[in-house]
Amino acid sequence: MNNVICTENLVKKFRRVEALRGLDLAVPEGAVYALVGPNGAGKTTFIKILMNIFGATRGRAEVLGVESTRLRERHFASIGYVSENQELPEWMRLDSFLAYLRPFYPAWDRKLENELVSQFDLPLDRKLWNLSRGMRMKAALASALAYHPKLIVLDEPFTGLDPLVRDELIQGLLQRAEESTILISSHDLAEIESFASHIGYLERGQLRFSEELTTLLERFREVELTFDTPPPLPKTAPNTWMHLSTSAAVIRFIESRFDPEKTSTKVRDVLGEARNVTFTPMSLRSIFLAMAKAARDPA
Q1: How far, in Å, CA of 33 to CA of 211, rounded?
Q2: Strand 151-155 versus strand 221-226 pairing type
Q3: % helix / strand / coil in the chain, to the nearest 5?
Q4: Which of 40, 85, 169, 299 is the most buried (most CB within 10 A)?
């Protein structure tokens, strides 16, 4: 499978602040790739380097087979980009805005444009400054989808939007997913979990993991053991265990490399026989919080 986005040892420094630290990331063709991480992790910096808004301090980034520093108008005709802070010509009416964009994109599809306007219930006769934030995001997304881009890049598109608008944006995206690769940065983990195929976790400028969402959800479990008389916590726990704690006769931790047989054996070897053991699947939000907490307080 070809990679639509590929970076090698990508570094970005802002004076003494290192926003990206040797980032190696690949987004396969046809993926809906969600990049998540805490505020300040480097997600927006990464996307701006991909879009040739920022230059990298070191390393390289490739988009649609072209180095990001070489992206030109003809390449952006195949890329749809929407950012939460994207500036629109708010003095223009929406119909004039769409008409202005059409000549820049040879593949602009008037039929698809009309479908998107109808789907998002966009008021063509109103100026952009008179639209709500949700409507402006819909307008930006419609303008980024109307020319059948090969790659759709979205930087925090759901911030500050009500659930109904988020759902409408997601539905619009999913209808284009068959013909495009999607890269999305977002904090709305519940929504991301409902449609992403791949997940990358960025923390302090470093990629902690990048994998298919199904694989990620399979390997994380909340483990709870109940004892008649609980043993003391081990001084050194397996490095795949996170947040080991005890309360009364119960020991809890998170297993980040769950395997039914291997994990059960490891639990018995380290903690002995328990009266009851449960392995509970985790949501993407729970995994995110566990990773963020581990980064803040490794102990």
Answers
A1: 9
A2: unpaired
A3: 35, 30, 35
A4: 169
- The three-class DSSP label of residue 277 is strand
Measured between its terminal Cα atoms, the distance across the chain in Å is 39
Give the range of the structural domain holding residue 262, as residue numbers without chain letter: 221-281
Q: Return d(Cα 286, Cα 282) in angstroms, integer.
A: 6
At 142, the amino acid letter reads A
Alpha helices in the chain (DSSP H): 43-50, 73-76, 94-101, 110-119, 133-145, 163-176, 189-195, 213-219, 260-271, 284-296
Number of domains in the chain: 2
Indicate if the alpha-carbon torsion angle 52, 57, 61, 66 is positive or negative: positive
Q: Indicate which CATH number applies to the domain containing 18.
A: 3.40.50.300
Query: In this structure, is the dihedral angle defined by the CA atoms of residues 197, 144, 24 and 283, taken in order, positive or negative?
Result: negative
Residues 177-222 pLDDT 10s: 778 999 999 877 877 888 899 999 998 999 999 999 999 999 999 9
Tell me phi and psi for residue 128, to 5 degrees: -60, -30
Q: What's the CA gap between 217 and 228, in Å, rounded?
A: 31
Closest CA to 92 of 64, 56, 128, 133: 128
Q: Which residues pair with 82 in a beta bridge?
A: 154
Compute the distance between CA of residue 85 and CA of residue 223 in angstroms, rounded to an integer. 41
- pLDDT, one tens digit per residue, over 110-161 is 999 999 999 999 999 999 999 998 899 899 999 999 999 999 999 988 877 7
Based on the fold, state whether residues 19 and 103 are members of the same structural domain: yes
Helix, coil or strand: residue 193: helix
- Asked if 266 contacts 238 with a C-beta cutoff of 8 angstroms, the reply is yes
Question: Does residue 287 form part of some domain?
Answer: no
Is position 130 within any domain? yes
